[in-house]
Design a protein that fits this description.
Length: 211
């Protein structure tokens, strides 16, 4: 495994599960914006990983771009408030795995989220000490594949690997030309993963700490 020179992590469904809290926040946003539509945590799990505009379009299929921008901004506002207050469920063993992995590999985060969300996750979990860099579309206006390449370029990575949990992650990895570790405990499916983990601590074995 030492041929890899960096490990890049997704957030939702890989590091933590914020969907119950985000569901509350988004339903409040939809209600305050005057919409009768509501979302469930299970539905959001199937949508996370998509660009925000696509998520809002799925929830409000008849909306135009201006409406989606307005609703998205309100969702972001309440989401930040709710997650700041309530946090989210960190997957068991993730902190221990990061502590071990960071001894040998530089760690990074790339997620299709709004600006400030990764920083909030790092603050609430205390995981900021393990990660060297992070990026999202809210920072760059680029989607996941391009942001994976950006992280690699600005950190001098030649052979990074990505840890994610959905087919959208897999598609981004294919476009970026990087392998993927499928976190099967997360939200979705990956068709042809390079590695599969059933829990965060399985990463320790994948990356050669336990032979």
């Amino acid at each position: 495994m030492n041929r890899y020179d960096g490990i890049i992590f997704d957030v939702d469904g890989t590091i933590w599960d914020s969907t119950p809290t985000v569901t509350e926040a988004w339903n409040r946003a939809l209600s305050n914006a005057g919409y009768s539509e509501r979302v469930t945590a299970d539905r959001l799990k199937g949508l996370f990983g998509l660009p925000m505009d696509d998520i809002i379009h799925d929830i409000l299929p008849d909306s135009d771009r201006k409406e989606r921008d307005e609703v998205g901004a309100l969702c972001y506002k309440y989401e930040h408030e709710y997650v700041s207050e309530k946090g989210a469920k960190v997957y068991e063993g993730l902190g221990e795995a990061l502590s071990i992995l960071s001894e040998r590999y530089p760690l990074f985060v790339v997620s299709n989220c709004q600006a400030g969300y990764i920083e909030l996750m790092l603050e609430k979990t205390g995981f900021g000490k393990y990660f060297k860099d992070h990026v999202c579309p809210g920072d760059t206006n680029l989607l996941k594949a391009e942001n994976i390449l950006l992280i690699a370029e600005r950190n001098g990575l030649k052979n990074p690997i990505y840890v994610g949990d959905t087919h959208m992650d897999e598609e981004a990895c294919v476009k970026a030309g990087v392998p993927i570790v499928f976190a099967s405990y997360g939200f979705g499916k990956v068709e042809k993963p390079d590695f599969i983990i059933d829990s965060p601590m399985d990463l320790v074995k994948v990356f050669g700490f336990e032979d």
